[in-house]
Write a structure and sequence with these properties.
Layout: E1 8-12, E2 17-21, H1 24-30, H2 33-44, E3 58-61, E4 76-81, E5 88-93, H3 97-102, E6 108-112, E7 119-124, E8 127-132, H4 141-152, E9 159-161, H5 164-167, E10 175-177, E11 181-183, H6 188-194, E12 197-203, H7 215-225, H8 230-233, H9 239-244, H10 266-272, E13 289-292, E14 297-300, H11 304-310, H12 319-332, H13 336-350, H14 356-368, H15 372-376, H16 380-387, E15 393-394, E16 397-398, H17 408-416, H18 423-426, H19 429-432, H20 450-467, H21 479-485, H22 490-510, H23 527-538
Parallel strand pairs: 1-6, 7-12
Antiparallel strand pairs: 1-2, 3-4, 3-6, 4-5, 7-8, 9-10, 9-12, 10-11, 13-14, 15-16
Bound molecules: iron/sulfur cluster (SF4).
Length: 553
């Protein structure tokens, strides 16, 4: 089985020291990316750690394919204890960081401790430098990138950094790379902020190139020649379809379709796309550099999730407003899904849906924790009572789109996901929108046949995140090809995925998570029985915990 290569580098921000450790055992068992990050976190973060404490660790991990020339591999994984959910969480970002991390020669780089002043940590193939940067306090993501460009002859693709939101410990702050690409969900940016690390750079010349089978060439060719709508509209192309089937959260989840969809859908985004955008080595090129000629506003996206959170869910029907929200999130370093949902909750409490000016002002206040922004920065789970709105979260995380009330398998996926209400953990929506996976479609209503399918999907996704292979490869990289690329039997690989999900769950169980946390803010007939069936397929106890003898933890 192919796996990432290289040692683990530990950088202690308190001690200003660094050392290497052999981690071959972990690599050969957990492949790379999320798998390796999860196992290292399980072994090295105390179960009772404070997410903002020095003992929390952030693991940036590469995978076996990140130095190859294959499409869909331009991604880097990050794992840590989330200040939003209180559980273990992995997030991966696209862009161009992946090749630069691989070129340092390390399979994984972990950050622990906390600096007494803002620093940039430079990780190179010949050592680590910790640079005090008091002048970067409060800097936007583009300003951090400019600093690194001007002072270190590096580029956006070498940098992972936070904006003011991370510094201010906004619980849904993101880590940004390549300026617009995001380690988005769960607040890992706030963890980096709590360590007083404004940015990390990765740079080196270590050659990790590997020989891949012919299928890698086929994947690359098909990525280049595919006529997928994703290449024109990214995921924003889903907006109109989700609206039609009544799965588009609207006005803070009070409705499931939006009369203003025409103003924010994929066509409106595509009209403003002005050049191709991609990630390292990826010929699929689904990213969306956009520009609005009238306002001169430039950003990347919005993708479908941002269209939901800052568009329909905020009652906003103008794509330019959503573009601006998107750009503010990228510059301040905020997860656009959580931030948009939080702002929508605030609009609901104020009775001001559709007020774009208030939306943009509120995003800025959240990033700086000013006025009401200081409370909103805590996330909906902690402040919904103060606002007088319903708690639309699962495990403390704000919901992604693809509403579970219309797509019941996705509802189950939101409930069981170890990282919270995120669509990419179990992604059952791909079966329940028949357009997306016509050969494997499921009736969106009810739970028949879904717990089994969800377990397999979660395991498969854990595997992709460890490979690390982009989720948008699904029309090109099927199970057979994935197994060939990773030089293993597919069933063996799925077992690795299952071990990763088990380990995440066991870590969270140790922190007190159980069945009560696998819940939704709405009732669905048959949900509890489906949850029990899911536990049974996983081999977990009825209370949602993993038996201690499982998972190689
Ligand atoms: S498919 Fe899109 S998001 Fe995925 S690696 Fe390629 S360009 Fe990046």
């Amino acid at each position: 089985m192919l796996h990432a290569e290289g040692p683990l580098l530990t950088v202690d921000a308190s001690e200003r020291s660094a050392h290497e450790t052999d981690c071959d055992d972990v690599l050969s068992t957990f492949i790379g990316g999320r798998g390796v990050g999860t196992k290292l976190a399980y072994d090295r973060i105390p179960f009772d750690a404070d997410p903002f404490g020095e003992e929390n660790r952030l693991f940036f991990v590469t995978g076996p394919l990140q130095a190859s020339r294959t499409s869909f591999t331009g991604r880097t994984s990050c794992t840590g204890l989330s200040p939003l959910t209180g559980g273990l969480l992995s997030s991966n970002a696209g862009g161009f960081l992946s090749r630069n991390l691989a070129a340092t020669g390390y399979a994984a780089v972990e950050f622990v401790g906390s600096s007494d002043e803002p620093v940039v940590i430079h990780v190179r193939d010949d050592g680590v430098e910790i640079e005090p940067v008091p002048e970067l306090e409060g800097a936007l993501v583009s300003e951090v990138t400019d600093y690194v460009r001007e002072n270190h002859d590096l580029d956006a693709e070498n940098v992972a950094c936070i904006g003011p939101a991370g510094e201010n410990r906004v619980r849904f702050a993101s880590i940004m790379t390549s300026e617009h690409r995001t380690f988005g969900r769960g607040g890992l940016g706030a963890v980096l902020g709590s360590k007083n690390v404004k940015a990390i750079t990765f740079d080196g010349d270590v050659d990790r190139t590997i020989e891949l089978p012919d299928v890698a060439r086929d994947v690359h060719r098909e990525a280049a020649t595919s006529d997928s709508v994703m290449k024109r509209q990214g995921t924003a192309g889903l907006t109109a379809f989700a609206n039609e089937v009544g799965a588009l959260p609207t006005r803070y989840f009070s409705e499931l379709s939006f009369e203003g969809t025409d103003g924010i859908d994929g066509d409106r985004v595509e009209e403003r796309k002005f050049k191709k955008g991609t990630c390292s080595q990826c010929a699929f090129a689904c990213k969306l550099p956009t520009r609005d000629e009238e306002t001169d506003l430039e950003t990347e996206g919005p993708e479908y999730e941002t269209v939901m959170a800052f568009g329909s869910n905020a009652g906003v029907d103008d794509v330019r407003s959503v573009m601006k929200s998107n750009e503010l999130c990228d510059e301040f370093g905020l997860d656009a899904i959580s931030c948009g949902d939080v702002v929508s909750a605030y609009l609901a409490s104020e009775g001001r849906f559709g007020d774009s000016e208030l939306v943009h002002e509120t995003v800025e206040r959240i990033a700086h924790r000013e006025g009401i922004g200081d409370r909103l920065a805590e996330g909906i789970d902690r402040i919904h009572e103060e606002l007088g709105v319903r708690n639309w979260t699962a495990k403390g995380m704000e919901f992604a789109a693809h509403d579970g009330r219309a797509l019941n398998g996705q509802a189950l996926a939101f409930a069981t996901a170890n990282r919270g209400a995120d669509h990419l953990y179990g992604s059952m929506y791909v079966y329940e929108y028949p357009l997306v996976a016509p050969d494997a479609a499921l009736d969106p209503e009810g739970f028949e046949g879904k717990p089994d399918r969800l377990v397999e999907k979660e395991n498969h996704n854990a595997l992709l995140d460890s490979g690390i292979v982009c989720r948008f490869s699904r029309d090109v990289v099927d199970e057979r090809r994935l197994a060939t690329l990773l030089d293993a039997d597919y069933e063996q690989l799925l077992a690795v995925g299952a071990r990763i999900v088990d380990l995440e769950r066991r870590f969270n169980n140790e922190r007190g998570f159980d069945r009560a946390d696998d819940s939704l803010p709405y009732d669905l007939p048959g949900f509890e029985a489906a949850l029990e069936e899911y536990y049974s397929v996983r081999g977990w106890a009825d209370d949602g915990t993993v038996p201690p003898d499982r998972a190689g933890g």
